[in-house]
Amino acid sequence: MKGNIDLHVHSSRSHDGCGAVRDWCRRAVERGLRVIGFAEHVDLDVTDAVFDPLDFDAYRVEVLAARAEFAGRLEVRLGVEVGYMPGIETEIAAWLADRPVDYVIGSVHTIFENAGVSAEYDALETFARHEFWEIYEEYFESVAAMVRSGLFDIAGHFDLVHRFGVQYLQCEMEWGRLYGTVTRAFEGVILRQMALEINTSGLRQAPRSCYPDRKLLQLYAELGGRAVTLGSDAHFPDDLGAGLDEAMALVRRFNLQPIDFINRQPV
Fold it and tell me: Is the pLDDT of residue 50 over 70?
């Protein structure tokens, strides 16, 4: 496996993940990974249907135990994936203030008034109630606001809205229509010295491409972006490391720089 670092996996500490941290680490060693990064969900909007506060202390104990057990064979990172919605920046900042993590992924999973775009049933309802371009414009405005907040180290699955949106396309996606908003978001990532995640879960889903897709990743590079992280967004151990070789091919094609994080500092 050429891509030997996976910074986006979900154990049973996340509401939609499975498996103990120790079991994931064992699988990572078997697959030749050098670094595994857990990114358990943190959703702080109490009106969100998946609101389920992470037991951070128990999570941290589990990760620290795995670090000790796998020392010399595998580096284990303790990260979180925070669901961003405009208006909850204060809550997010307060939650992060006293929790020692290696990195924070900022992700948009819902838009409008808790209209979901990441889970199938929620996304189908969202696309049934709103116009296609209205959804995409709202989604990327939220991504731009997430970046602008300055709360995060990594911009997660940048164009996740395309996971189900692709099913409503009649022709090839016209990213140019969203050029202004997408450019502002990328420029914010670069200005704030964040990393853009190359999330390989899209290879296993309808888009059949990483998030962000090739054209968006090319735009990021043309704007001067280089820092990226690699993540499978695996919720099941069988998907650990999936697609990392394809992600590394994109890294080489666009002259990007994969990075790691320790104590919220890029490595």
Answer: no
